[in-house]
Amino acid sequence: MKIVVLAGGLSTERNVSLVSGTGVCRALREKGHQAILVDMFLGLENYTGELQDIFDAPDGLCGEARIERTAPDLEQVRRSRRDQSPSVLGKDVLAVCSMADVVFLALHGACGEDGRIQAALDLLGVPYTGSDYISSAMAMDKSVAKRFMDTTGIRTAPWRSIRYGEEDIPRLVEELEVPCAVKIVNGGSSNGVELPDTKEELAKALRNVLRYGDHVVVEKKIRGRELTVAVLGDRYLPAVEIIPKADYFNYETKYQAGDATEVCPAPITEEQWHEMGEMALKLHRALGLDIYSRTDFLLDENGTPWCLEVNTLPGMTPTSLVPQEAAAVGISYGDLCELIVTESLKERKAGR
């Protein structure tokens, strides 16, 4: 098959996405597919061949991608593109997607997981991997996903949705209880997340998160072990425990080798695994998600799991959490990438 692996984009998770996309593209090429890696934001501005020959490009246009210790400077990324239009779609992106049998979405964060690119591909009639645009948008918005958790009986920390500006911070500092978690509603990879323990830290946290947007979820801070459970098709996979060396699993500890230990299957009881797995599966189905997702949890000191959020396009590097869980049940990385493609095509052809 001719496959466009769409990665990069213009979100704080850009570099993570490029590493995921590079891994997926090479795995699919090893499976015999004509896969190419395309940066959604930069597009094909550096490709000099004929567009109709692009699926024969050496190494599938894959370069060397890596994740720095800090999130990318998006303004610098904007300035680096020769086409300075406001579009988040780079040169020939939609044209090359239209030439593919399927688009593998290796995007993360805004303009990837929020449903917009899915909607654009739907309008073009181009099949893509993962969930549709409505389900993606609902899952990406933490305030919407939290409402689904509440209405379906999935245990999550008490929370409230807040829109605010700088002038509202003194009032909010008085109103909100600490310790708490302050999260931008459409963030990912722990960008736009603060965990204040005091009123002074809360004021600073609210100012810091304003850099990402003015709509946040503020929830009671739950202390415990960090775990995640993937859903693949109609089943949940073995849990992974993430043990960060820092106080919590932030952007840096997520993506720098040696900054966190990941254990799969997680050292928890069968009952705890099944409880988290059933919660992940229930949320996956309630939101109408397709093919795969990953749900994150905290396991408190009493052994009670609390649902944090669901990811519709989780990391897909060869050592990411979902590939680790798949490997634990005998599914190799290459087989996982191909399975996501084939099952997604079935869903799209069925009109879902």
Short note summarizing the structure:
The protein is 35% helix and 20% strand. The chain is an alpha+beta fold.
- Computed structural class: alpha+beta
Classify the beta-strand content into a percent band: 15-25%
CATH topology of the largest domain: Rossmann fold
Please write the string of helix (H) and strand (E) elements.
Answer: EHEHHEHHHEHEEHEEEEHEHEEHH
Mean pLDDT: 92
Radius of gyration, in angstroms, nearest whole number: 20 Å
According to DSSP, the number of beta strands is 13
Total domains, how many? 3
Low-confidence stretches: 249-257
Name the shape in a single word.
Answer: globular
Q: Considering DSSP H and I runs of 4 or more, what fraction of the residues is helical?
A: 25-40%
Which architecture of the largest domain would the CATH scheme give at its second level? Answer: 3-Layer(aba) Sandwich
- The CATH class assignment of the largest domain is Alpha Beta
State the end-to-end CA separation.
21 Å
Helix segment tally: 12
The description of the largest β-sheet is:
6 strands, antiparallel
